[in-house]
Specification:
single chain, about 300 residues, alpha/beta, Rossmann fold, Alpha-Beta Plaits, 6-stranded mixed β-sheet, 4-stranded antiparallel β-sheet, about 30% strand
């Protein structure tokens, strides 16, 4: 559905994209992760033909990016592009007209998109009266009004409470089940874990790691992560070295990589003589993978 090859872009002497290569298959949710300044926004702007690349090629549904290809893309930006004084129906009708939808077909698309995001009963509600989650769902509906081949969802749940976040996640899963191809950017790593079939980590304008969650887990040589709170961290680290455990600090958390899973009692026994205030086992998560790949020791 989307093929990017050797895409490069500079602003003056600052190179933002460096021979970026990316492929998204039809019907896939692809998560693009990266810190601010990694090149995500520049990539999206080039995809939408709002910005010219210095070199490289992009194909969307087999077509090279041009003035005609934006109709193949639906973009739901992080900041809602909604008219707050208009109703849900009026907002979607406005965007449908921009894309050239006419007559009964336009009205059908407005009704269908409202139903798709569970806002059919709020068609006449003014946007400013909606909750944040409802507004975000309407923002996604506006991106889908013209039946694009590829939906770009930029931080779709940023700033939402947990209930609204779950509603958006369910909507995204439903869109995929209906055949929509989605490029998702997010800073919420658990969101990428839950939704994405494949994930790419973007740093300094190029993909530095890519794959399914299981494939990315191979980048961390551990079968399990253990977080320990102890007043004697240096002693715990020294003991871990003797046991062949790698240690890391994630923020202020001291964690150890275990080459094989162990029962909690076995782990505690390995640190016998060292006071432990708390201990927790968990699988290798995208958070650890991202930190290890983006900021290698």
């Amino acid at each position: 559905m989307l093929l990017i090859e050797n895409l490069s872009k500079s602003y003056g002497k600052r190179q933002v994209l460096k021979n970026l290569n990316l492929r998204i298959e039809p019907g896939e949710i692809y998560g693009l992760l990266g810190s601010n300044g990694a090149g995500k926004t520049t990539t999206i702007n080039i995809l939408c033909n709002l910005l010219k690349a210095d070199r490289g090629t992009i194909r969307i549904a087999g077509q090279t990016v041009s003035k005609s290809t934006p109709k193949l893309i639906g973009v739901a930006p992080q900041e809602n592009l909604l008219y707050r004084s208009l109703s849900c129906q009026e907002n979607l009708d406005f965007y449908a007209r921009i894309y050239g939808l006419r007559g009964n077909f336009r009205r059908q698309r407005v009704a269908a998109c409202l139903a798709a995001v569970n806002l059919g009963d709020r068609a006449r509600s003014v946007v400013e009266t909606l909750s944040g989650g409802m507004q975000r769902r309407l923002n996604i509906a506006a991106a889908l009004i013209h039946q694009p081949k590829l939906a770009i969802l930029d931080e779709p749940t940023a700033g939402l409470d947990i209930e609204a976040r779950y509603e958006i996640w369910e909507l995204i899963r439903r869109l995929r089940s209906e055949g929509m191809t989605i490029l998702l950017t997010t800073h919420l790593l658990d969101e990428a874990e839950r939704l994405c079939q494949r994930i790419g980590i973007l740093k300094s304008g190029k993909i530095i790691a890519e794959g399914t969650l299981e494939e990315l887990r191979q980048r961390v040589p551990a079968k399990e992560i253990v977080t320990i709170e102890t007043p004697e961290e240096e002693n715990a680290i020294s003991r871990a070295r003797e046991l062949g455990f790698t240690h890391r600090y994630y923020g202020s958390d001291l964690v150890f990589w275990l080459p094989e899973p162990l029962e909690l009692a076995e782990i505690i026994a390995q640190f016998q003589g060292i006071p432990i205030d708390s201990i927790a086992r968990h699988p290798v998560r995208l958070e650890q993978i991202y930190l290890e790949v983006a900021n290698p020791v």
